[in-house]
Amino acid sequence: MLSGQPSSTADFVAYARALHQKVDEPPIFTDPLATRIWGGSVSSSAEFDQRQSDDLVRARRLFIAARSRVSDDTVADAIERGCDQVVILGAGLDTTAYRQSSTHVRFYEVDNPATQEYKRSRLAHAGITIPPSLTFVPVDFEQETLAGALAQAGLDRTRGTVFVWLGVAVYLTRPAVDNVLRYIASGPAELVFDYFYPLDSTPGDPTSIQLQHRAELVAAAGEPWRTFFTAEEIRAILLSFGYRHIEDRSASELLATYGWQPSTRSTDSGPHLIHACTA
């Protein structure tokens, strides 16, 4: 991310969520605020889809929708069980906290200060009210400790907390990713997050080749992909930090659970989604 600038990929993800509401039937994920909060610039939001096949563009949009659906369902289930703290890490233009009717649940949105300022402007432009149950927590994951920022914001780590961390880990250095995962595991927690397989894990695979080109486009925008894992590596890391009940699904496996079948053969290439707990 360019210093002092909001995340350009936050706009892209918002665009994908908004477009999903219009073109994918039946929708995997329903968000009545997605179109309103999105900035509306198709050219800037679609720039990372250059030289990508229509199938891959669609699969990526569906994966973004599916991971949001898993996040929503996880948060809803936890609240029903009595959880009253939810942390959205790298929130971007996420609308989770603005779609909740549970007034007793405290939401914390953690992100780069410039991105949070941009989000506030988008919320104001869209006429979306910031709920009193939401706290903005400005953090640079590479420079500041998540523990200190959330403690100052009032998060109680002795109580169960849901952490949602989507579309972020691949942009961070490995030490920063480890620090976040270790911190989350330091208390009772449920985590939903995604990661990318190494781009060279399946040489010659068309999906891997297109993803490498996409990585170049994103890097040129100031947000290079830095950290990758295989399923075996990330599982070993999570277990070493104290996570349990680890569920890891590739993009194609995740989409299949919602009745969407990929038009290309299933591989481990690309993003995976993890749902894990500390107890």
Give a structural overview.
By secondary structure, the chain is α/β, with parallel strands linked by helices. The chain is 42% helix and 15% strand. The chain has helices at 8-23, 34-37, 42-45, 54-80, 113-126, 146-153, 174-184, 206-220, 231-241, 251-257, and strands at residues 85-89, 106-111, 134-138, 161-165, 189-196, 244-250, 271-277. Strands 3-2-1-4-5-7-6 form a seven-stranded mixed sheet, with helices on both faces. α5 (113-126) links the parallel β2 (106-111) and β3 (134-138). α1 (8-23) packs across α4 (54-80) and α4 (54-80) packs across α10 (251-257).
Order of strands, widest sheet: 3-2-1-4-5-7-6
Through-space gap between termini: 34 Å
Q: What's the average pLDDT?
A: 89
Largest sheet: 7 strands, mixed
If you compute it from the alpha carbons, what radius of gyration comes out, rounded to the nearest whole angstrom?
18 Å
Can you tag this structure with a few keywords?
279 residues; 10 helices; 7 strands; globular
